[in-house]
Design brief:
Residues 18-34 have a biased composition (Basic and acidic residues). The chain is an all-alpha fold and 164 residues long. Helices cover 80% and strands 0% of the residues. The chain contains two helices and no strands.
Length: 164
């Protein structure tokens, strides 16, 4: 920088104050300290550049502090989210297990009731067949009895015979 002319942009963000500061700092290293107006001007420039750069360094520190706190908050939020998600998954797993158990139990009950109902329906059908057979036999016997009565007496009046 000492070889570059004053006012040439060389700083990180290109500010003239940084160039001045760097220039005088390098020059002060090479030369012995002087007393007089030049050193006083250098001292004033040094103080002015420090005052002008102070808000930037303060702002950088503030940004770093906010970033650190923000990262801490994000970490806490992520940790809480993970914890709540784990709790929700555990509750869901318990509810799912309870649902599966109750569903299986209900299916077993329906199946056993269905088997009982099917047995009862089979018995009912068997009873109905037996009754139909008895009714059919009775109807045939009555028909035969009627026929016999008609054949013996000849003509039978309608009021005397009940129709089956």
């Amino acid at each position: 920088m000492g070889n570059k002319p004053m006012g040439t942009m060389t700083g990180s963000n290109g500010s003239l104050l940084e160039d001045l500061r760097a220039h005088f700092t390098e020059r002060d290293k090479d030369e012995e300290p002087r007393n007089g107006p030049v050193s006083e001007i250098q001292h004033i420039c040094q103080k002015a550049s420090e005052k002008l750069l102070f808000p930037q360094t303060t702002g950088n520190k503030l940004v770093e502090a906010y970033e650190a706190r923000m990262n801490d908050c994000i970490g806490k939020i992520e940790a809480r989210h993970d914890m709540e998600r784990d709790v929700a998954f555990e509750k869901m797993r318990v509810s799912q297990q309870r649902f599966v158990t109750k569903t299986q139990r209900t299916l077993q009950q329906v199946s056993s009731r269905s088997a009982r109902v099917q047995k009862q329906m089979q018995r009912l059908e068997d009873d109905m067949k037996a009754r139909r057979n008895v009714y059919g036999g009775t109807t045939e016997a009555l028909g035969a009895l009627r026929q016999c009565a008609v054949n013996e007496t000849g003509a039978v009046e309608m009021e005397d015979c009940a129709r089956p």
